[in-house]
């Protein structure tokens, strides 16, 4: 194991932060698998699972089982981790500009595409290497204005050439689910079987260039531009490890075991692996529909994340006790109620839950802010 400490330059005199990356296996070994947690810095199930995973990786290393290159960044957002407001972690957005830490990653196809004109030949493997080198060069020359820009670039310096990128998040109250593109369906299937995720939300373009999409969309864009001499070698996902309060060593240790199975199945480690679950149910991200609060008030539920619901079914209530008024929360589509808001109060018009269905109902930007 090798630990790398990456300095961020700091937003003002006298303030600096660091990003810590841990590596197992040799630089350049394949597959290269990258895992990070805490990009939304108030989401701790992923970082705790990675703490347990790293102990398992140390054991595997001692047993000589590391074949590929595994990179773990357990806390990917030192900026967000330090941002507390009124005794609560903020985590999701930077306090300077209110930007979501998981949006606005560099568009590698736009940055590197022109330089690849005339550089690609008939050998797909050689083209992958050429494109990855071009991505690295583009990142090295990318414009950095703010500390958050710098964080985005430093994260992608370690990921632009990875075969597999897992960005571990969590939701408010939720069952385990993940977001993936259509690029590597066999890996989508494998990830579900290794982790036990109940739902895979599939979309090639979600809008906003989130961290996961910043690794798959460029390959698709370059394929559109240069044709099928450009393969799609990268699988990237946002894996939602249930809800914000689902933080326990027992669950994290089990999740780390699932990730080890995934690493073995991918060939990054040698050893025996037996995925313990069935594949996640795949649904289009455009079929995940949100229900908005009809009034402000107190939120109560008669359902739980993971429940199968039918469109129009009663999910819970919003109550305004001052006005002695109560409104129903109804399923906006038929499918899996996979997430609910954590808070027990709401504002009028606030999103309260999502139901994922097989029927695409939405267009445009498909992610919440
Ligand atoms: Zn998140």
List the SSEs and their pairings.
Layout: E1 2-8, E2 17-24, E3 32-37, H1 45-62, E4 69-73, H2 78-81, E5 84-85, E6 88-89, H3 108-112, H4 124-140, H5 147-157, E7 164-171, E8 173-174, E9 177-180, H6 185-195, E10 199-202, H7 213-226, E11 235-243, H8 249-266, E12 281-284, E13 288-292, E14 297-301, E15 308-309, E16 314-320, E17 325-330, E18 335-340, E19 345-346, E20 351-356
Parallel strand pairs: 3-4, 3-7, 7-11, 9-10, 10-12
Antiparallel strand pairs: 1-2, 2-4, 5-6, 8-18, 9-11, 13-20, 14-16, 14-19, 15-18, 16-17, 18-20
Helix pairs in contact: 1-8, 6-8
Bound molecules: zinc ion.
Zinc ion binds at residues 40, 43, 102, 169.
Task: Describe the protein.
The structure is a single chain. With 369 residues, the protein is an alpha+beta fold. It folds into 2 domains: 2-279, Aminopeptidase; 286-356, Beta Barrel (OB fold (Dihydrolipoamide Acetyltransferase, E2P)). It is 27% helix and 27% strand. The chain is built from 8 helices and 20 strands. The longest helix has 18 residues, at 45-62. The mean pLDDT is 96. Zinc ion is lined by residues 40, 43, 102, 169.
Give a concise summary.
With 369 residues, this protein is an alpha+beta fold. It contains 8 helices and 20 strands.
Key phrases:
8 helices, five-stranded antiparallel sheet, 369 residues, 27% helix, 2 domains, 20 strands, binds zinc ion, alpha+beta, OB fold (Dihydrolipoamide Acetyltransferase, E2P), 27% strand, Aminopeptidase
């Amino acid at each position: 194991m090798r630990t790398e400490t990456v300095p961020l330059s700091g937003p003002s005199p006298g303030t600096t932060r660091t990003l810590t990356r841990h590596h197992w296996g040799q630089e350049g070994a394949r597959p290269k698998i990258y895992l990070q947690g805490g990009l939304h810095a108030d989401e701790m199930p992923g970082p705790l699972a990675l703490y347990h995973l790293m102990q398992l990786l140390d054991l595997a290393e001692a047993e000589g089982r590391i074949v590929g290159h595994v990179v773990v960044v357990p806390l990917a957002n030192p900026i967000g981790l330090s941002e507390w407001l009124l005794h609560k972690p903020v985590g999701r957005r930077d306090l300077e500009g209110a930007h979501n830490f998981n949006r606005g990653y560099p568009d590698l196809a736009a940055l590197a595409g022109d330089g690849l004109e005339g550089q690609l030949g008939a050998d797909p493997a050689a083209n992958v290497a050429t494109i990855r080198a071009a991505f690295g060069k583009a990142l090295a020359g990318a414009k950095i204005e703010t500390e958050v820009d710098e964080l985005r670039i430093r994260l992608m310096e370690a990921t632009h050439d990875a075969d597999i990128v897992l960005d571990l998040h969590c939701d408010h109250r939720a069952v385990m689910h993940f977001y993936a593109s259509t690029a590597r369906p066999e890996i989508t299937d494998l990830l579900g079987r290794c982790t036990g995720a109940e739902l895979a939300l599939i979309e090639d373009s979600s809008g906003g260039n989130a961290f996961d999409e910043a690794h798959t969309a460029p390959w698709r864009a370059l394929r559109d531009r240069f044709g099928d001499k450009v393969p799609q070698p990268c699988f990237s996902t946002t894996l939602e490890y249930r809800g914000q309060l689902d933080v326990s060593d027992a669950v994290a240790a089990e999740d780390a075991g699932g990730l080890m199975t995934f690493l073995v199945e991918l060939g990054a480690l040698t050893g025996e692996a037996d995925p313990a679950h069935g594949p996640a149910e795949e649904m289009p991200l455009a079929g995940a529909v949100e229900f908005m609060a009809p009034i402000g008030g107190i939120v109560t539920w008669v359902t739980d994340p993971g429940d199968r619901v039918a469109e129009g079914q009663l999910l819970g209530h919003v109550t305004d006790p001052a006005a002695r008024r109560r409104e129903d929360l109804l399923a906006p589509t038929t499918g899996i109620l996979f997430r609910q808001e954590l808070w027990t109060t709401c504002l009028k018009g606030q999103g309260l839950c999502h139901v994922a269905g097989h029927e695409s109902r939405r267009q445009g930007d498909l992610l919440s802010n």
